[in-house]
Amino acid sequence: MTPTLLANIFCTVGIAFLALSSFLKAKDKILYMQIGNYGFFALGDLIIGSFAGSVVNAISIIRNVLAAKGKDSRFVQILMLVSIVGIGIAVNVISGNVGILYFVPIIASAQYTLCAFICKSAQALRVAMIVFLILWFIHDFGMAIYTSAAVDLLVAVITLVNCFRLKDA
Q1: For the chain, how big is the Rg over CA atoms in Å?
Q2: Other Cβ atoms within 10 Å of 26 Cβ, number
Q3: Which residues of 127-161 are buried (b: 16+ CB within 10 A; e: fewer)?
Q4: Which of 19, 44, 81, 102 is most deeply packed, by most CB within 10 A?
Q5: What is the model's pLDDT at position 168?
Q6: Angle, vertex CA 31, rays to CA 30 and CA 34, nearest 5
Q7: Cα angle value 60/121/161 (rounded, 5°)
Q8: Which residue stretches of the chain are H helix?
Q9: Residue 105, class by beta-carbon neighbours within 10 Å (0-12 exposed, 13-18 middle, 19+ buried)?
């Protein structure tokens, strides 16, 4: 089995957690469900050589737990944002991955981190998830994780539908 195929398998399993989270009505449940996504994506990105993507996904697990538990002090928000951006950039530079494609996971996770802490409703989190998915689509397609790229778009559409379907949630 090639690394690209294995990465696609891990990322496809992970994206299922993200898709399922878009059906949930409570912000904390959405955040907890997404932990599965970040775990599998961290492994897939590690296998394919997107080390910043892997690290950012690992930090995102911590972010989601803190945000779901309401640990959203200004200090925690800044710490998570600085961790994602700072560690993500450092890992890219150290590993020699300095192309723009390698910075897309950092941008995606930074915007979602802000929303995870600042947005109070599940609906706002779904909208942030759509932006997040589009950015990850760009990364996954560029890294030749085509299955995940296709599923990113599919889940973005599912999430958009759920924005309308669950607009009062």
Answers
A1: 15
A2: 12
A3: ebbbebbebbbbbbbebebebbbbbbbebbebbbe
A4: 44
A5: 64
A6: 85
A7: 90
A8: 3-21, 27-48, 51-68, 74-82, 88-95, 100-118, 122-142, 146-165
A9: buried
Tell me how crowded residue 103 is: count the other CB atoms within 10 A of its CB.
Answer: 18
| 20 phi and psi angles, rounded to 5 deg | -60, -35
pTM of the predicted protein model: 0.85
| Residue 138 near residue 168, CB atoms below 8 Å | no
**pLDDT tens digits for 96-124?**
888 888 889 899 999 999 999 998 899 99
Task: Name the token pair of 18.
Answer: 């993200």
